């Protein structure tokens, strides 16, 4: 049965007193949970002290992040199709010597029936042309399991499917940094939180406010037993069960551990012994 979902906030209420609006917006810095619920009108999980990314702060890491002309784009892909195919786009920008801004400016979260690697690539190529992103060289990273052979076809992989779908935007080294083994979940968690907390002077990470799924993942993904807690959803309409959270935060993990490979190697060596 067709249906329509309308999302509204206090900003749509013409009778909302200015002092109430100011209160809701003040939560952005003082109480990210209340800001998410009362100002943005989004579902939220109460902070429990068990967050996977306690180093993430909406006040510190979410800010307008427009595309920068000519700066390379690093794209990060996760191995999933439900509830969406998660793909992030970031630009590593050096505004001054010794400084590195990791600018996450665009996410793709195409849902069924448009979910999947090929539709996501097609939408990016469309946006690349429309928004004049062609001057930026493209580098792809992502989940190493996308290199695994598909069941029943030993010559085909999702990695090759992405490469084929993205071919018009690629150069000879675009796929060279894609990892062959994913970094360990808990160690990369420690590293990403260290980066987010400013562990490396001069290195910062920021998300555009329109990257709503990525921001929600960073805020709401919970810690399980030596991994991310796999919150599952039973979709009766589609007859499938899938993991709700963790897909875009996986993209962030792959992005940071690849882009900051020397720092991650040193961090891992120091903590693993």
Structural commentary:
The mean pLDDT is 88. The protein has helices at residues 18-30, 32-39, 58-61, 117-130, 158-166, 185-196, 212-220, 247-259, 261-272, and strands spanning 73-77, 84-93, 100-111, 138-142, 149-150, 153-157, 203-207, 232-235, 240-243. The N and C termini lie far apart (57 Å). By secondary structure, the chain is of the alpha/beta class. The radius of gyration is 19 Å and the shape is globular. The strands form three sheets. A five-stranded mixed sheet has the order 4-1-2-3-7. The protein folds into two domains: 1-44, no CATH class; 52-272, Nucleotidyltransferase, domain 5, CATH 3.30.420.280. Helices cover 34% and strands 19% of the residues.
How are the SSEs ordered, and which strands pair?
Elements lengths: L17 H13 L1 H8 L18 H4 L11 E5 L6 E10 L6 E12 L5 H14 L7 E5 L6 E2 L2 E5 H9 L18 H12 L6 E5 L4 H9 L11 E4 L4 E4 L3 H13 L1 H12 L1
Parallel strand pairs: 1-4, 3-7
Antiparallel strand pairs: 1-2, 2-3, 5-6, 8-9
- Beta-strand portion reads 15-25%
Distance between the termini: 57 Å
- CATH top-level class of the largest domain: Alpha Beta
CATH fold assignment of the largest domain: Nucleotidyltransferase, domain 5
Question: Major sheet: size, sense and barrel closure?
Answer: 5 strands, mixed
Q: Please provide the count of β strands.
A: 9
The H/E string reads HHHEEEHEEEHHEHEEHH
CATH architecture of the largest domain: 2-Layer Sandwich
Main attributes of the structure:
273 residues, alpha/beta, Nucleotidyltransferase, domain 5, two-stranded antiparallel ribbon, 34% helix, globular
């Amino acid at each position: 049965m067709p249906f329509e979902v309308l999302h509204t906030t206090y900003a749509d209420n013409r009778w909302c007193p200015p002092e109430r609006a100011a209160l809701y917006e003040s939560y952005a810095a003082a109480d990210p949970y209340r800001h998410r619920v009362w100002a943005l009108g989004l579902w939220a999980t109460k902070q429990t002290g068990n967050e996977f990314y306690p180093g993430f702060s909406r006040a510190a890491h979410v800010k307008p992040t427009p595309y920068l002309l000519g700066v390379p784009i690093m794209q990060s892909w996760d191995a999933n199709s439900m509830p969406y195919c998660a793909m992030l786009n970031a630009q590593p920008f050096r505004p001054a010597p010794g400084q590195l801004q990791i600018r996450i400016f665009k996410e793709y979260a195409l849902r069924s029936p448009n979910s999947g690697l090929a539709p996501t690539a097609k939408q990016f190529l469309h946006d690349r042309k429309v928004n004049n992103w062609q001057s930026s060289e493209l580098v792809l990273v992502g989940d190493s399991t996308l290199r695994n052979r598909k069941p029943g076809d030993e010559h085909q992989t999702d990695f090759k499917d992405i490469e084929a779908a993205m071919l018009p935007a690629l150069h000879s080294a675009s796929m060279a940094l894609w990892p062959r083994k994913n970094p360990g979940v808990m160690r990369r968690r420690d590293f990403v939180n260290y980066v987010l907390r400013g562990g490396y002077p001069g290195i910062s990470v920021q998300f555009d406010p329109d990257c709503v799924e990525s921001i929600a993942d960073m805020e709401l993904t919970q810690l399980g037993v030596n991994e991310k807690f796999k919150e599952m959803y039973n979709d009766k309409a589609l007859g499938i069960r899938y993991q709700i959270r963790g897909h875009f935060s996986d993209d962030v993990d792959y992005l940071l551990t690849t882009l900051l490979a020397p720092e991650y190697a040193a961090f891992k060596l120091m903590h693993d012994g």
